[in-house]
Amino acid sequence: MAIVLGWVMFALADLVLPAWVALVAAITVGMLSVSVLRRTVAIGGVVALLAPFGVMLPALALRDVAVAFGAPIPGFSTPEIAVFLMLYTGFLASVYGKVPIELYRYGYAPKPVGLMVLALCAYSFATGNWFLAVVTVTAQSFWTLRLGSSNWFDHMLHVLLWPAALWALIARVF
Fold it and tell me: What residue intervals traverse the membrane (predicted)?
């Protein structure tokens, strides 16, 4: 929660302030949200609405900040983001029962999860995107160790990824 709220603060502050000032603001907001504001209705509501945050969303947040300071962490290309948006839209339609197959249930089963992890790692190797492989294996580790959700998709995906990916795609086009 702290990383995600800090990321939002960093993204907003980085529009008008130097990166180091935006980072200080992000750390401040993140720390306040989990220490002082933790028991407020607003933070509790955000957690209730958006939990679990999984691995991918905080990893993308940390990557975004690190890249702003010059770290050479690979990102995703415009076509990759566009394909992700299409696939994730189909996945969400499946989750909400708008298509006849429910894909979310495969996130509980070891064999489909293993195949998805292998496929993503192979794709990462083929594209040279080690960041995706690290996040994928970390998510599988959390899932295997039962840290957080019992569904692997909860570690890899988050509903906020859809608007974040759409925003990234729009920002690249304009």
Answer: 6-29, 41-61, 81-101, 113-132, 152-170
Predicted pLDDT at 172: 85
DSSP class of residue 55?
T
Say how many C-beta atoms besides its own lie within 10 A of residue 130's C-beta. Answer: 13
Nearest alpha carbon to residue 74 among 5, 130, 13? 130
Tokens 């939990």 belong to 51
Q: Which of 11-15, 36-40, 125-129, 145-149 has the highest mean pLDDT?
A: 125-129
- 64, 65, 75, 138, 142 from 71: Cα distances, Å: 9, 9, 11, 20, 25
Judged against a pLDDT cut of 70, whether residue 84 lies above it is answered with: yes
Residue 99 carries which DSSP code?
Answer: S
**pLDDT confidence band for 134 (50 / 70 / 90):** very high
Residue 43 CA neighbour count, 13 Å, CB half: 17
Q: Which two tokens stand for residue 117?
A: 């992890």
Q: Higher pLDDT residue, 3 or 105? A: 105
Distance separating alpha carbons of residues 130 and 127, to the nearest angstrom: 8
Q: Round to whole Å and give the CA distance between 132 and 152.
A: 15
DSSP result, 61-89? HHHHHHHHTT-------HHHHHHHHHHHH
Q: Angle at the Cα of 39 (from 35 to 44), degrees rounded to 5?
A: 110
